[in-house]
Amino acid sequence: MLKVAVLDDYQRVALDYADWSQLGSDVSVDVFDRNLATEDEAAAALADYDVLCLMRERMPLPASLIARLPKLKLVIVTGARVRTIDMDTAVAQGITVCHTFAGESQHATPEIAWGLILSVARNIPGEHARVRAGRWQETIGVTLGGKTLGLLGLGKLGSRMVPIAKAFGMEVIAWSQNLTAERAAEAGARLVEKDDLFRQADVVSIHLVLGERSRGLVGAREIGLMKPDAMLINTSRGPIVEEAPLIDALEAGRIRAGLDVYDQEPLPENHPLRRVPNAVTTPHLGYVTEGAYRGFYRDAVEDILAWRAGKPVRVLAAPQAA
Prior knowledge:
Layout: E1 2-6, E2 27-31, H1 39-46, E3 51-54, H2 63-66, E4 74-77, H3 87-92, E5 96-99, H4 105-122, H5 124-132, E6 148-152, H6 158-167, E7 171-175, H7 181-187, E8 190-191, H8 194-200, E9 203-206, H9 220-225, E10 231-234, H10 243-251, E11 256-259, E12 279-281, H11 290-308, E13 315-317
Parallel strand pairs: 1-2, 1-3, 3-4, 4-5, 6-7, 6-9, 7-8, 9-10, 10-11, 11-12
Antiparallel strand pairs: 5-13
């Protein structure tokens, strides 16, 4: 019997969104609807599985954990990019790593960014809670028209923010390490220096890939340059923003924030970001759409079938043939 574990299916939709029966009667599929938060917990729960289906980067596979999964032969990660699997160790242990289609992030992530911007600007979550509690309006919002959107990153996702900002009547400025004035203008934005972006923007929205150059890119200095009551929106990756100065600024009421990503996910129960004022927080919803999930699980089944047939598809890493 081939044992398959589908991890981090928080919404409990994996078995409904794909036809796992295609795998045959000699395959068992178990779904985990919770995060295996520690390596010891993961090693104990997954030791008997041959195949792991990961949901994006929710559960890392470092070398130390891979070494504790002796039966593992195939790992499937949803999406086309992963930084949380030790590929060298996987290959050395005879494990093939495959991926699924990339998802709908080009639409979904900018849309959640705008959801956060509007929620922060008009205090929507708080006022919703007050209506449900039998109260009425208690806050005063701000409009976006005439304001300035500053984009950190103007690639596939960042550039999709521009026409929406223009529809609201906003000016758009942008910065990234390799961005040119010509490329910015083509996207409908104006290139500025990084410090000027933080000084001028009423809304700073992050659309960068996490890497050595972007880790900690937004720290106390950059946050200190922001206008009073400016908004910081992060739908990219948590570690791009240094957590401690962000929390300090929110607790002091200097800025506002809309956050979909965090250094540690899920956020620990007592984490300060669960209770800071001036922030709207969502649980990494940027890529969580029905279309994406149906594609993820459909491709996961296809990946398993292809691997069992000896012709794996969408391969990220694989042992050398004997």
